[in-house]
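#struct-help
A.M.: can someone run this one for me? Single chain, 339 residues.
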Amino acid sequence: MKAFGTFETTDISNSNSIVPIEIPVQQPTGHDLLVQVKAVSVNPVDTKVRNAQNGRTNGARIVGYDASGIVVAVGEKVTLFKPGDEVYYAGDVTRKGTNTDQHLVDERIVAHKPETLDFLTAAGIPLTSITAYEALFARLPFSAEHHEKNIGKRLLIINGAGGVGSIAIQLAKWAGLHVIATASRPETIRWVKDLGADEVINHRQSFKDEFEKLPFDTVDAILCLNDTKGHWQNMYDVIKPQGHICSIVEIGDGINLDLIKPKSITFSWEFMFTRPMFETEDMIEQHNLLTKVAKLLDNGVLKQTVTKKLTPLNAENLREAHQLVESGKMIGKIVVGEN
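D.P.: on it. Structure tokens below:
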């Protein structure tokens, strides 16, 4: 069976950074599905794992944490799917990635593909929508769907034009929140406004100064999707007392947590792989979440966020996708595969 991976940590411009390899065909057991992969997307986590010093599989590191495809076989404990079902999912960072012809994945983190999306477009949805949904409605104090609890609440999303931000803006508006997104280029400003952001500020400037242009000077919560450490003071300056900050971006060598103590700020992490990594009791919530997102897409409540498609799924196109993601200039999502 063909897969795409790397035997060495090297710059993505090197042709050896991602190469075709042969791996054994596997059979599903337990809750696993065997999925014929039709398309994948490339996320920042793909580039981080590709450059990591562990996670090798059969001598190669195989990444990929978004996929859409067709179920070809199921394990003996599977109850949610059958062969022939069209599915989409974000996978498990502790297992072999999706950049393969066929892929094993636990049914509890999989959902039926949105009916209105082709395989390529659907592959761009799972990881970002799980991250955004869990951050907004599990880590931050907001209710899913439009709810009285959310009325009048303001949310700042740092890096609104990225993959997660593009879905988070839409989910936050669906929930009835007032959304301020950050963007710095004309094209990213247009993008976040088109997705529903009520206001836009420049993340390259002082947030306190940027908020002087707005009719309010604080927000109830912040979703940080870029440079947690670099924006730490900025976030403190505009968060309400007793507010909430959630981040998906590693801090590195640390930040001053004492800074947020006077305002009694709650800080939390969102890592969408937590449930599959630890097989938590509520692991099936990712199946439920993706099922809800599929309906929102099919009903036109959410817009798909793919801005670039590369075909077919091969090493050359994966290298190009990784290079684009590593550039930090991507708007929305990039996908590789076939319709």
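A.M.: thanks! The longest helix spans residues 126-139.
D.P.: also worth noting: The radius of gyration is 20 Å.
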